[in-house]
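Morning. Coffee machine broken again, so started the prediction first thing and wrote up yesterday's gels while waiting. Chain of 306 residues, entered below exactly as on the submission form.
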Amino acid sequence: MDWQQALYDDYMIFRKRGASCAPSTEATIRAAIFSFFDYMNLHGMESLSDISAIDLKNWHIQSRHSSARARNLYTSQLRIFFEYLADKGLILPNLPLALTPQCSSRISIVEILTPEQMKKIDEYRKSASTPMELRDVAIVLLGLRMGMRSVDICKLMISDISWKDQTISFVQQKTGVFITLPMPTDVGNSLYRYITEGRPCVQGNNQIFLSHTPPYPGLKQANAASRSIRHIFANGSVSSPKGFHITRRTFASNMLRSGSSVPLIASALGHAGIQSVDPYLSTDDAYLRLCAISCEKITYKGKYDL
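Came back before lunch.
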């Protein structure tokens, strides 16, 4: 209905005013809201005043998502939308409370590159000579040594590099936040070699990483970065890591191990808050061992005095 579309459009203006939304996030918001609008239309509800807490509960129960985690993702976005409606006075203020999460938050074990995998990447970097090899090395080092996301790497422009200041500046695709990162020497050397020796000569295209197939368009999809890391481990002598994002996780873990502060790591990753760095604490074995408490001088007895 027209009023539902207008309500959604107003809400998205509000959301984007407070913080940018990645395309994937916006798609989730739209799917959640219009899923409930479809529920309203199916049950003959013609306005927001017709919605009750029972309706929200029933929508949540009949969700097509099989996993509790996916259902929780959609429900949380709808809850934020209803909180917006409550703030605008369009619904009762306690109505959003009917949308509760279906599962608790989950913390996964962070996987990072092993020493053998790191050595393999370094050996590939030293021997790279063909245009594709030079491109693979430059892409992987941007993730491993600077923590850049694959989508940002593929969209990187030559003008984003300051050779004089040894920095790379760009707007992050996921968050919309502008960031300037220091460029390590090995990353700068790999980029320079690719641009001068491997990159196809294309007039009018400022994008760094191009397809090597005529007419040589710029890389558009982030899975090009995943292909780069697969090429490095193609001979099978060392197990291939799962996905490109492991380079970003390894970057954060290495910063933590080197003694960098959590706010500095969050800033280097382009995160607004420091909570996102918490999962990487589990990768710092040396400092975790220092947290262990000795059982010395602690007396205790179990059943049967054992």
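Residues 23-42 form the longest helix (20 residues). Going to sketch it on the whiteboard this afternoon.
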